[in-house]
Amino acid sequence: MPEEGNPYVGPRPFERRHAALFFGRDREVNELVSLIIAHTEVLLYSQSGAGKSSLVNARLIPLLEAEGFDVLPSARVQGVVEGVDPGEIGNIYAFHTMMSWADRGADARQFARTSLADFLRARKNPVDDAGNPVLRVAIFDQFEELFTAYPDRWQERRGFFIQVREAIKEADSGLRTVFVMREDHLAEIDPYGTILPERFHTRFRLERMLEQRALDCVQKPLENTRPQRRFAPGVANALIDQLLLLKTTGPDG
Questions:
Q1: Three-state secondary structure string covering 120-156
Q2: Is the domain of 121 the same as that of 181?
Q3: pLDDT tens digits, 212-250
Q4: Residue 189, number of CB atoms within 10 A of its CB
Q5: Is residue 182 part of a domain?
Q6: Separation of alpha carbons 134 and 203, rounded Å
Q7: Which strands make up the sheet holding 203-205, listed edge to edge?
Q8: 91, 160 Cβ separation under 8 angstroms
Q9: What is the model's pTM?
Q10: Is 145 part of any domain?
């Protein structure tokens, strides 16, 4: 539990350790796994606050691992640069991706001029019971940061996608990539689609949760509390009604 006796995570993304508390997205995660198996690139997008990162952390990654995939740590394309001069980094977005994948305490300097393909070639790929390499999944969370971080290095965005393409085609034919981003940045990714093998044709929009499944998210985390706790009749429904209410300001104020 997030805190002792409290089964609710609060206004922050769910993490892997919160998997037992995450409800309401079984259909979506099963569809996503099917898409990931079939395609080298999947673009997962939604409005801000719809729960993309929570879905990835608490449901998608555990299910992929249960299916036998080799899931790399979720990657971010921005972060703090320590131990290396930023001017020595060939591609800042690829650099932060590899830092996300690397073991804790790894020397950042070794990734300044390393490509994603070289990193994956050097990383041991697990095999299944028949001795065949298992499918590997690279998840890029909050991928809109490619367009909001390091604006002075915008020329390196294209190079980042070229590195992803080379990783898929040359380093690991079983690599699957998942790009998770806010839909208000969706148009910015389209000019780069032609670089990748499947051109971002496979897209999945995560819709806001419907009322009944939202009710599961509110009520089911209480099932394993000891002593058993529950909402008084009608309270959970009233809470959902409030959460589903969106306030807007019209032209007349």
A1: HHHCCCCECCCCCECCEEEEECCCCHHHHCCHHHCCH
A2: yes
A3: 666 676 767 777 777 777 777 776 677 667 766 777 888
A4: 19
A5: yes
A6: 23
A7: 70-71, 136-140, 175-182, 41-46, 203-205
A8: yes
A9: 0.85
A10: yes
